[in-house]
Design goal:
The relative contact order is 0.15. It is globular and about 50 Å long. The chain has one domain. The chain is mostly helical. Strands 1-2 form a two-stranded antiparallel sheet. The protein is 67% helix and 3% strand. It has twelve helices and two strands. Helix 1 runs antiparallel to helix 7 and helix 3 packs antiparallel against helix 10. The N terminus is likely disordered.
């Protein structure tokens, strides 16, 4: 199996999304085609792109589980330093261009703000192979939390999406501060979900009340 190349980035994050946006011509595009358009910056940028619907007021219907599964598989690839297996049926799933363009435009604006702050630093958190494996497993954890069935509860998608975004951006741009922010957001997500679940149990409603809300 091939290892995942983590090249030094050739383009800013915003430039990558702008390039993808300018390349969209068909009415529908598959996840596989999107990944190809992302290009040489590859799987970590694709991972970041998949968090956009959960961070910004854009609507891409019915993607939370599909996007979460792809992030889990990418996280497994990062943790094992192997190109991940991505199921054909999932990667051939298509998204309407009319829903995708607003996500790309707002995502590019978000990434342009990130680009002002992100740079190589705290390299110990991004260069050690052991820590990169840990970061891969934490991407998996973030994706699992993202898929938790609490979607209508405020911040239940936003917090794990931020954790994934910070982790992926930090690994891609060799910025240990962003990786550390990913750790903190993941911890905040676990605490937040714990408070939600604990509160529901104390109130005598159980987990079904959170899922149904």
């Amino acid at each position: 199996m091939m290892s995942i190349p983590l090249h030094d980035p050739q383009f800013t994050l915003a430039q990558t999304l702008d390039t993808v946006k300018d390349s969209l011509h068909e009415e529908r595009i598959s996840l596989r085609e999107l990944m190809v358009l992302v290009g040489e910056q590859g799987l970590l940028v694709f991972c970041m792109f998949l968090t956009i619907p959960f961070l910004l007021p854009v609507s891409i219907p019915g993607v939370s589980t599909a996007f979460g599964v792809v992030i889990v598989l990418i996280g497994i690839g990062v943790a094992l330093n192997r190109v991940p297996w991505l199921p054909t049926g999932l990667m051939n799933r298509t998204i309407e261009r009319i829903h995708l363009l607003p996500a790309l435009e707002k995502g590019a604006a978000l990434f342009s703000r990130l680009d002002r702050f992100i740079r190589p630093r705290w390299l110990a958190l991004t260069h050690a192979s052991t820590l990169n494996r840990l970061n891969g497993f934490l991407l998996i954890a973030g994706a699992v939390l993202l898929m938790a069935p609490f979607g209508l509860i405020p911040f239940s998608n936003t917090l794990p999406a931020l954790a994934i975004l910070f982790l992926a951006a930090g690994m891609l741009q060799r910025d240990g501060i962003f990786v550390a922010l990913g750790y903190l957001m993941l911890l905040a997500t676990v605490v937040y979900f714990g408070v939600l679940i604990g509160g529901a149990i104390v109130a005598g409603h159980g987990l079904s009340s959170l899922i149904a809300s």
